[in-house]
Amino acid sequence: MKAFCQRIVGMPYFDHFIIALILLNSLVLGLETSSFLTSHFENWFYWIHKIILAFFIIEALIKITAVAPQWNRYFGNGWNLFDFSIIILSLIPMTGQFAMIARLVRLLRILRLVSTIPELRLIVTTLIRSIPSMGHILVLSGILFYIYGILGYHLFHQHDPELWGSFGLSLLTLFRVITLEDWTDVMYVAMELSPWAWTYFVSFVIIGTFVVINLFIAVVLNNLQDAKAAQEIKTERELTITKEPESELTHLLDQIKATQQKMLELQTELEKKLKT
Fold first, then answer.
1. CB atoms within 10 A of CB 178
2. pTM of the model
3. Quick check: 147 and 157 in contact, CB under 8 A?
4. Which domains does the chain have, with CATH numbers?
5. Which of 232, 5, 24 is nearest to 118 (CA)?
6. Could you tell me which of 200, 187, 208 has the C-alpha nearest to residue 142?
7. Which end of the chain is less congested by CB atoms within 10 angstroms, N or C?
8. What are 169-223's pLDDT values in tens digits?
9. Which of 63, 55, 46 lies closest to 20, judged by CA?
């Protein structure tokens, strides 16, 4: 049974089938937002969800059986734990007070695409690895917002209290500016007070948008390279582990064949001597 499950997991069509199920689940979730379709095909949608969940349970059982009794090879993998948790949560009944939770869990099944497609797993791993470095950039952004927020309040709160009337409003306005969403309208209103107000906004856009965001991109790209290198090392180790037993078996078979050949040669010589 274990060998059979290992062969199934090793098939490329196995992952493709799971991806197809996730996409089908995503399609059904989107169709359920239509009241017309729900009123006519609600029963069909219900059974499609049940069948997809059954296949997900079978998939988990196959993967667990394939690594038995080394359970840590399955449960020690964060992506497998994520998939297993979604399956367990999907068993929540769709009735009563848990109905909304069950619907939210169905949405989480779409995230299984991340755990199924290696490229998406690499991107998520990169983002997670980037969190510590991003923390320092966020601190730098916080300092920048704090300085410009206080400065903007003192410069423009009397002229434009709707956008700069308090420190909190100043931060919200700066967030609007840094997203580059109609920030020039905010600047032109401030320039009615002083024609030099553009220096405040242009300097903030240059520092906040182009410099800080590029720092984020640089950190992500750097960690992406590290994640790719770590993935390549892990793949090489797995290949080495799988190849070593095969090479040992091949060596033993060669020795057995050589011994058999020597035995045949000795048998032939003994038969010749007995005949003479």
1. 20
2. 0.58
3. no
4. 2-116 (1.20.120.350), 121-238 (1.10.287.70)
5. 232
6. 208
7. C
8. 999 999 989 888 888 899 999 999 888 899 999 999 988 887 777 887 887 777 7
9. 55
